[in-house]
Amino acid sequence: MEFLYTDEQKPQVLVTVKDLPAICAGINCDYAYTEPTSEITAVTLNTGTSEITIEGTGLPTTDITIHLSTVECPLNVDTDTITDVLITCTFTDPLVAGSWFVELRDLNGLIPLADGQVETVVPLTISS
Questions:
Q1: What is the pTM of this model?
Q2: What is the DSSP-derived secondary structure letter of residue 31?
Q3: Spatial separation of the C-alpha atoms in residues 74 and 93, rounded to whole Å
Q4: Per-residue pLDDT tens for 108-117?
Q5: How far apart (Å, rounded) are the C-alpha atoms in residues 16 and 39?
Q6: In angstroms, rounded to a whole number, what is the distance separating the alpha carbons of residues 53 and 104?
Q7: Does the pLDDT of residue 4 top 70, yes or no?
Q8: Are 59 and 85 in contact (CB under 8 A)?
Q9: I need a surface site. Which of 56, 90, 107, 112 has the fewest CB within 10 A?
Q10: Is pLDDT of 33 > 70?
Q11: Using an 8 Å Cβ cutoff, are 43 and 22 in contact?
Q12: Exposed, middle or buried by CB within 10 Å (0-12, 13-18, 19+), for 10?
């Protein structure tokens, strides 16, 4: 199968399942890359309230998820701000200490960070 190719105009994806080559429906294994139009320009974390603020240009306003490390921030349309230039969200689960890049995703994938962005630092806090 690795020698069978067709003249394709879009990039192809070759998939194996349990070491067997998968066959696409209609022999159509292509995809189209969509250049992102959004960009994250600033990220601020208020560790006292676990609220994250994401600033950017052309940010998505629907079907989005926000992660810092492995922790997802559940968006609440009643209390959080969601616009194309500003998104705020409050984490309900404890954050993982360390330095992390925020991951904002929409249906097309990960929203890129502007050049020069640094990791968001979650300090290690010991209470006793």
A1: 0.76
A2: -
A3: 9
A4: 899 999 999 9
A5: 34
A6: 11
A7: no
A8: yes
A9: 107
A10: yes
A11: no
A12: exposed
State residue 120's pLDDT score.
Answer: 94
- Walk me through the domains of the chain, giving residue ranges and CATH numbers: 39-122 (2.60.40)
What is the C-alpha separation between 107 and 89, in angstroms, rounded? 19
Which tokens hold the place of 101?
A: 């890049």
Q: In sequence order, what are the residues at sequence separation of 6 or more whose Cβ sits closer than 8 angstroms to the Cβ of residue 73?
A: 52, 66, 67, 89, 90, 91, 92
The terminus-to-terminus CA distance of the chain in angstroms comes to 61
Residue-wise pLDDT tens digits, 5-30: 666 677 667 778 788 877 676 666 77
Exposure string over 92-122, b if 16+ CB within 10 A, otherwise e: eeebeeeebbbebebeeeebebeeeeeebeb
What distance in Å separates the CA atoms of residue 91 and residue 116, rounded to the nearest whole number? 25
